[in-house]
Design a protein that fits this description.
2 copies of one chain form a homodimer.
Chain A lengths: L1 E7 L14 H4 L3 H9 L1 E6 L9 H8 L4 H4 L3 H8 L9 E12 L4 E5 L8 H8 L10 E6 L4 E7 L29 H22 L2 H8 L7 E9 L6 H5 L3 E4 L3 H9 L3 E2 L13 H11 L5 E6 L1 H7 L3 H22 L5 E6 L16 E6 L13 H5 L5 E3 L2 H8 L9
Parallel strand pairs in A: 1-10, 1-11, 2-13, 8-9, 8-10
Antiparallel strand pairs in A: 2-12, 3-4, 3-6, 3-7, 5-6, 11-12
């Protein structure tokens, strides 16, 4: 028995979304409805009733981790989310390119966002693998959108208990990073961060990108401001807990990152883009192939959330219809209830009427021979409220693997 | 979007209450039933399945706090419950007026309840604001019913880790309060408590009330016995977590106290008595007015629980009908589903057949535009068991505010 988890990001909605119904209710989903008739539904609170989940915390919870215990802050998961290779124990910062003026001693921040520059990737190249302190600590920076990026420190004896170099206000000097607590690790980390910041300024100030911006009268990206230090937690890999192989098929870096941290192998599938243009048939085919070598296949589909964040109810509904047809269409016929337990759900609700993650519970569908059937005739939020699986918080992966009779007993 | 939470104390019941049905099933509740048809129902375990809740712990849970984390013992919440102004960090004791005999050195307890005297309020006046230790610690005592009361210590450097002065047995001397752990705070608190106890004895022994009781041959209330030291937790105010204004309309001191600790403003509404005689129309009008300035309005109605504790099923049922007519009657017509999310539930079940709080889950009704409707046609425990909101533990306030899109995300 193998497990497949399919997450449509931001799947849940509200009756206020589109003519008194949710996008899922409005969509024509014959394949999902057939799976619902053959399986059972329930309602999932991604973290707990009334908690508005982030994508990072909800995925941790879905994989069976307690976010209250392992979520160390945005820094670490933002770094994962922009595709940095982050391991347990790494110290991560959120980072901005900013414009400073050298007043002959102090570096005064003039623009905390360097005019929202577009050349972050080019500047980032100058900072690659800036390794300090005789090589036992590495610094890896990656740019994301506009002036944003993330910095990861890896090495022994580091601490996230250090202050920001971002003064959080223009007209002030770049702050000196300081230990927040008296410890050798925090002191050393602060010293390394300050040395990195100086070295980054030296590498950036006369970078061709900045020379060009100077000539055009644009604010330069001549410094990196760091904030929100957080240590990446050591996650007890799901694949090791259950002694299985796992595969992840996702476009977005955050989902790959969390799945990777949970021990899954992240597959590279051509056509998978992490947005509304993604190739859903390619995802279905890759998921089916991955079942050959994995006991757990995790598929993440992002487009539902993109449409919902943009407030586009009809687009969200059409994309759900595409998931039904292009992802589940062929796949649902080819999967055998005796071989695979399937779960289809979302990581949270994103009602287009709100355009943001909300705390509303998310419909979840379980299908496969071990699942006790209920009376649900179709798949949507209302049907799920009457579903035989009731209401529960996160833990879709442990439930799936439980149905597959995998994992040890807690107790004897 | 604003939130209104209406709690009918001890609302839930059992089929053993009245001719095979609960009081809520027996009651004619056309307005609640209409709200149920337009909204959705669920079952709430006030704390967790199988836990018999107190009114204090259940309200903490309903407001989103974890009682296992913040509930420090009866002392603190009893003090709140009799209307003492208690702040986070205050050290509270349960207190009894008792009768002691001075044997020329020891004070021997002869009656731990001072004959269940009726003059507690008069004696309490003699103890008001008995401030010791150069004024940095204040002692506030308040009498409740018969011989009972509560004492609150406020000031720096205090600890609740001290033993009782109540020997818990007659014929023994008043116990010396001692530190339970070696700490400056516990030692200092014990010394202050012992000094207070001596000073209270001096103030009480020749009090006119006791002189009169002596002449009548009644046991005097000449000492205060203290037990169950507990520190009032610092609660992270709901109003600050969500950056909102909140209002509380309640008769009972405990409910005002918990709501106040959660950051709500306690409104003084004429006619609101906290028992079966309360003016329910005045409550409804005050609640509607409070919505003008508050994003969260909490209304507590106590009479259901009073009738149930007295084992009066018919009286409980009639009071539920009064809530339906006098509270929801006009209000439910005037509230707009697009402006307000309403939740009606109880803080626990009190089946008249039992006459005490039980662990049975409580029906909960949510109503408003963001709520996904279910198939429920009326409001009672049986309908709620088939409701679209499933079963969950406490957290009514976070859920309500979640539907109002208030509060930050946990994660990103």
């Amino acid at each position: 028995m193998k497990a497949m988890l399919v997450i449509a990001d931001g799947l849940g909605g509200r009756p206020t979304d589109w003519n008194g119904a949710t996008c899922l209710e409005q969509a024509e989903t014959p394949h999902m409805d057939r799976l619902a008739r053959e399986g059972a539904l329930g309602l999932m609170d991604p973290i707990a009733p009334g908690v508005r989940p982030g994508s990072d915390t909800s995925h941790l919870s879905i994989f069976g981790y307690d976010p209250a215990e392992v979520y160390t802050g945005r820094g670490a998961f933002e770094a994962l989310g922009i595709g940095l290779n982050v391991r347990g124990g790494d110290v991560c910062f959120r980072a901005n390119f900013a414009t400073v003026e050298d007043t002959g001693g102090d570096l005064i921040v003039r623009d905390r966002r360097a005019g929202r520059l577009a050349e972050g990737q080019e500047l980032a190249e100058a900072l690659q693998e800036l390794t300090l302190n005789d090589g036992d600590v590495s610094f890896t920076f990656r740019a994301s959108t506009e002036h944003r990026g993330a910095l990861v420190l890896r090495g022994p004896g580091l601490s996230a208990e250090v202050t920001d170099s971002d003064p959080h206000e223009e007209g002030k000097p770049v702050a000196v990073c300081k230990p927040q607590r008296e410890s050798d690790e925090a002191r050393r980390t602060a010293e390394l961060v300050n040395a990195f910041s100086r070295r980054a300024y030296e590498l950036l100030r006369d970078h061709p990108v900045n020379r060009a911006r100077r000539q055009q009268g644009k604010p330069e990206g001549n410094v990196l401001l760091l904030r929100g230090a957080a240590v990446m937690p050591h996650l007890d890999a799901v694949t090791e807990q259950y002694r299985i192989q796992g595969s992840c098929i996702a476009g977005g870096a955050l989902y790959k990152g969390v799945a990777g941290a949970a021990g899954l192998t992240v597959l590279d599938v051509p056509g998978v883009t992490g947005d509304l243009k993604t190739d859903l048939s390619a995802k279905a085919q890759a998921a089916e192939r991955a079942l050959e070598s994995s006991q757990l296949v995790f598929v993440h589909i992002k487009g539902t959330d993109n449409a919902a964040h943009d407030g586009e109810a009809e687009e969200k509904s059409r994309f759900i219809e595409r998931i039904d047809k292009e992802f589940f269409g062929g796949l649902a016929d080819r999967l055998s209830r005796g071989d695979v337990v399937l779960c289809f759900s979302g990581d949270h609700s994103t009602p287009p009427a709100v355009g943001e993650h909300t705390a509303d519970p998310v419909p979840a569908l379980f299908w496969g021979a071990p699942i006790r059937r209920d009376a649900c005739e179709k798949f949507d939020e209302i049907a799920a409220g009457a579903g035989g699986l009731g209401r529960f918080s996160g833990r879709l992966v442990p439930q799936l693997l439980g149905y597959c009779d995998l994992g040890g007993k807690f107790g004897a």
